[in-house]
């Protein structure tokens, strides 16, 4: 793992790092059917890896400094159950998610003409245990009430092992709805001392995680881990980000900045998917200045955020528009 606070600062310069957007959103925009799939975008690691490479590349060309792997809903157990793979093959498939992102980074570096763009990073995505359950508890964190810290660590361990072994620059522990699960992940991270990570919570209002825990206390817990390069919020309405950051403002530190990548603010229904609303995804770019003032140094988007939205974000944050997206 080559990521550190120093390397992040070097890549960032004076402006925040731009993260990518919704990988599944971009895949669906290209015609891929994901709704209802128990593996979500992770199935394409097995069936259409080129689609994943291409989606990563489009985000890079649009201005992303960091791309996250297609492993949010990937797990060794899930691949064994739904793809009929052996545990060894399942681990190899999960590791391939890192290699696909690295392929896209290499292609971008080879074609990039902007001398101000550093080499983008690959973040290995680790989602909440509830995403595997597919019962809606991903959005409440209720499953953690019936699990111990050790059980949660045992679940996440194979995924993190694979991402670290495959050479991800850092691990993105994201959309975590539960303070208990966050505690388990922070403890587990210590088993990989060379690994750096960020931890991003999903939240239900301007002060609370989805499980009702105070965002302030969850951040306090996370900040005890020296391996975290950032803590923050993702897959949450953009309108909630500022009050969440303000609620934990007393913990603001240049050594542990905020990472912020909300969704579009639209509502998700398990049976039908995202409900289109009047909410503008461009509000992420519009609101990013407020987040920067609170100390956010890594900003991007999650579900329903496209390469075009990331291009607008980069132009606003860094003042240099990106090249048009070409065919891949």
What does this structure look like?
Helix content is 42%, strand content 13%. It has 13 helices and 10 strands. The chain has an 8-stranded parallel β-sheet. Strands 8-9 form a two-stranded antiparallel ribbon. α4 packs parallel to α13 (307-318), α8 packs across α9 and α12 packs across α13 (307-318). Mean pLDDT is 91; it is low at 324-328.
Overall geometry comes to globular
Oligomeric state of the chains in view: single chain
Total count of helical runs of at least 4 residues: 13
H-E order:
HEHHHEHHEHHEHEHEHEEEHEH
Strand order of the largest sheet: 1-10-7-6-5-4-3-2
Mean pLDDT: 91
Terminal Cα separation, in Å?
28 Å
Strand content: 5-15%
Largest sheet: 8 strands, parallel
Whole-angstrom Rg: 18 Å
Overall helicity? 40-55%
Number of strands: 10
Structural class: alpha/beta
Name the descriptors.
single chain, 328 residues, alpha/beta, eight-stranded parallel β-sheet, two-stranded antiparallel sheet, 13 helices, 10 strands, 42% helix, globular, disordered C terminus
């Amino acid at each position: 793992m080559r990521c550190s606070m120093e390397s992040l600062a070097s890549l960032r310069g004076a402006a925040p790092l731009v993260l990518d957007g919704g990988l599944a959103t971009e895949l669906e925009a290209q015609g891929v059917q994901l709704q209802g799939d128990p593996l979500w975008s992770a199935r394409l690691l097995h069936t259409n890896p080129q689609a994943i490479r291409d989606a990563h590349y489009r985000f890079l060309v649009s201005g992303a400094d960091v791309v996250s792997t297609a492993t949010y809903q990937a797990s060794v157990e899930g691949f064994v159950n739904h793809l009929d793979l052996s545990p060894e093959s399942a681990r190899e498939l999960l590791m391939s998610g890192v290699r696909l992102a690295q392929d896209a980074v290499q292609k971008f570096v080879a074609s990039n003409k902007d001398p101000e763009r550093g080499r983008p990073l690959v973040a290995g995505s680790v989602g909440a245990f509830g995403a595997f359950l597919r019962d809606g508890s991903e959005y409440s964190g209720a499953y953690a009430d019936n699990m111990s810290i050790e059980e949660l660590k045992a679940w996440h361990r194979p995924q993190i092992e694979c991402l670290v072994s495959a050479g991800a620059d850092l691990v993105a522990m994201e959309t975590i709805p539960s303070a208990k699960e966050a505690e388990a992940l922070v403890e587990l991270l210590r088993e990989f001392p060379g690994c750096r990570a960020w931890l991003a919570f999903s939240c239900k209002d301007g002060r609370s995680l989805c499980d009702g825990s105070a965002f302030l206390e969850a951040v306090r817990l996370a900040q005890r881990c020296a391996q975290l390069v950032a803590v923050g919020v993702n897959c949450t309405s953009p309108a909630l980000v500022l009050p969440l950051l303000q609620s934990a403002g007393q913990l603001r530190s240049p050594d542990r900045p905020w990472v912020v990548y909300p969704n579009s603010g639209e509502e998700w229904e398990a049976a039908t998917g995202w409900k289109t609303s009047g909410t503008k995804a461009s509000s992420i770019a519009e609101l990013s200045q407020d987040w920067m003032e609170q100390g956010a140094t890594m900003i991007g988007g999650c579900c329903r955020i496209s390469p075009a939205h990331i291009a607008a974000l980069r132009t606003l944050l860094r003042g240099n528009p990106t090249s048009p997206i070409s065919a891949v």
